[in-house]
């Protein structure tokens, strides 16, 4: 019976054996705590029917624990140096496939069609590299992949922003972008000590359960997100100011007050107080006036 990869001693012996040195620029902080790994896998609800896409397997500590439960794991790793190491550490798990690729460049629909045809349950599970957390999560959400959800370890502050409620300091365009596609829940706070090397920031495991439908009806998604981003452009400014400064041409600025009147949203409010439903009403009203 093999030892778990995720112990300080075994991780060190793997790193020594392969003379591996960490690349900070690739967000390489490896997990060495079995309890945290178990929590991630349990939160994701990985079972014998589940197919899992992992991003950034590192030396395979999380991959190994997922592989013990899942029907199949396909993992994207950007660092060529880790490919032979993973071949070694995961040799007991023939249902794990490693793809040497930047996940941001991957055609995930195509990979899912090829690797997971016939699977009814698909999850993305990862300890994400922190320097690209947001682009990766937004890619996973906006590509409307046939997945049940995403369970990932990320920087605590980013997790808080993704799961934030209106009226809180963490609420912003990222909260709305994520919550438009998924129900977000910050699950477990994780101390720095469970990583090697230790990162400078605290971490959280967040679960994003994909919605079948967005929670609001918007006429034009791109325009909706433009309105949201504009509303948060300068957090100290009012909604009206932010919209006037960032949206529309000079001639169209009058429309903003008209749309606020029509939707009964006070332009003196700040963006962070508006619910996703209010943003949807506002962007639909603005679009209607814009198109007249
Ligand atoms: N899963 C391992 C663990 O928990 O110990 C390693 C996690 S480490 C935080 C992030 C991993 O993502 C590293 O192995 C890094 O090389 C890889 N990585 C960084 N950027 C990537 C990208 N754009 N696409 C795929 N993998 C990436």
Briefly summarize what is shown.
With 292 residues, the chain is an alpha/beta fold. 40% of the residues lie in helices and 18% in strands.
Structure explained in plain terms:
This protein has 292 residues and is an alpha/beta fold. It folds into 2 domains: 203 residues, Vaccinia Virus protein VP39 (Rossmann fold, 3-Layer(aba) Sandwich); 71 residues, rRNA adenine dimethylase, C-terminal domain (Helicase, Ruva Protein, domain 3, Orthogonal Bundle). It is 40% helix and 18% strand. The protein has 12 helices and 9 strands. The chain has a 7-stranded mixed beta sheet with strand order 4-3-2-5-6-9-7, with helices on both faces. Helix 3 links the parallel strand 2 and strand 3. Helix 9 packs across helix 12 and helix 11 packs across helix 12. The longest helix is centred in the last third of the chain and has 16 residues. The chain is elongated. The protein starts with 7 loop residues before the first helix and ends with a helix. The site of S-adenosylmethionine (SAM) has 23 residues, from strand 1, helix 3 and strand 3.
Defining key terms:
9 strands; seven-stranded mixed sheet; two-stranded antiparallel sheet; 2 domains; alpha/beta; 40% helix; 292 residues; binds S-adenosylmethionine; Helicase, Ruva Protein, domain 3; Rossmann fold
